[in-house]
Design a protein that fits this description.
globular; about 130 residues; alpha+beta; 4-stranded mixed beta sheet
């Protein structure tokens, strides 16, 4: 179970992370990662924070709950390696229903590394109007 300080809890937080964040994917998951300055309701500190999206395309209720449990466990392990302001939405793809915990963790870590590279590249590109 993820502690409350590591959860995205409202649809507004999910939308905000998905719309502003970087999208990276693998065979079993798509990660939406946002590391910007928190504001308003989203300004809760104590993160990083995660949200999970596991649709019916993943499988029946038993399969979806199994995937959700596995993803929560992986996210909790990753939390120590992340910036506290990071927000991540993990969307399980249909292949996640058949994947083992090891495959899910490998795919999430791989996607996380891609997102970290994108974030680094974005920081290195001068912003318009900046001197």
């Amino acid at each position: 179970m993820l502690p409350a300080k590591h959860k995205l809890t409202s649809s507004r937080q999910f939308r905000h992370t998905i719309s502003l964040g970087w999208r990276v994917g693998s065979r079993t998951v798509v990660l939406h990662v946002w590391e910007g300055e928190p504001s308003g309701e989203i300004a809760r500190v104590g993160g990083p924070r995660f949200g999970l999206v596991v649709s019916k395309a993943v499988g029946n209720a038993v399969a979806r709950h199994r995937v959700s449990r596995r993803l929560r466990h992986i996210c909790l392990n990753l939390a120590a390696e992340m910036n506290p302001r990071t927000q991540v939405v993990v969307r399980a793809l249909p292949a996640a229903g058949e994947a083992s915990s090891e495959v899910l963790e490998r795919d999430i870590r791989k996607a996380w590394k891609k997102a970290a590279r994108k974030a680094q590249e974005a920081r290195e590109i001068p912003q318009p109007g900046a001197r």
